[in-house]
Design brief:
mainly alpha, single chain
Length: 143
């Protein structure tokens, strides 16, 4: 296996996504939906722009994801009083159940992926990966 940084990041992402989708296949979730459920589990009642930013999904792509999730009864969109221009996305009860399942699967996969790596190394790796993400999205966060 190629051990270049870019290759290992791409392979890690691909393997994680496959593992998540395989664990959720019986739930009928499609790519993009688990991370939206995870985001809304922490930020229920968010506007679409914030969800797109938080999940690193193109806003147009997110529109399709949310429409499918709405069709499955996982989310609902509501306007808040006094702000009819923006709709806010909320988890339904079914969406909350799926969000919790997604969270559990993420925790299990994280534990599996980090098996055999000392806590100090995990913390250092996560901090470094966070800096890399900031460099790719908002270099000002590091200053």
């Amino acid at each position: 296996m190629d051990q270049s940084f870019h290759y290992l990041i791409m392979v890690s992402h691909s393997l994680l996504q496959k593992s998540v989708l395989n664990a959720l296949i019986q739930d009928g979730l499609t790519p993009g939906q688990p991370k939206v459920l995870d985001y809304l589990g922490k930020h229920d009642g968010s506007i679409q722009k914030d969800i797109a930013h938080g999940c690193q999904i193109d806003p147009a792509t997110l529109t399709g994801i949310l429409e499918r999730m709405e069709g499955k009864g996982l989310v609902e969109r509501k306007a808040k009083e006094g702000n009819r221009r923006s709709s806010y996305v909320y988890l339904t009860e079914s969406g909350r159940v799926k969000s919790e399942k997604v969270r559990q699967i993420f925790l299990e996969l994280e534990s599996e992926m980090l098996r055999g790596i000392e806590q100090e190394e995990q913390t250092q790796f996560i901090n470094t990966l966070y800096k890399i993400c900031c460099n790719m999205t908002d270099p000002e966060k590091l200053q």
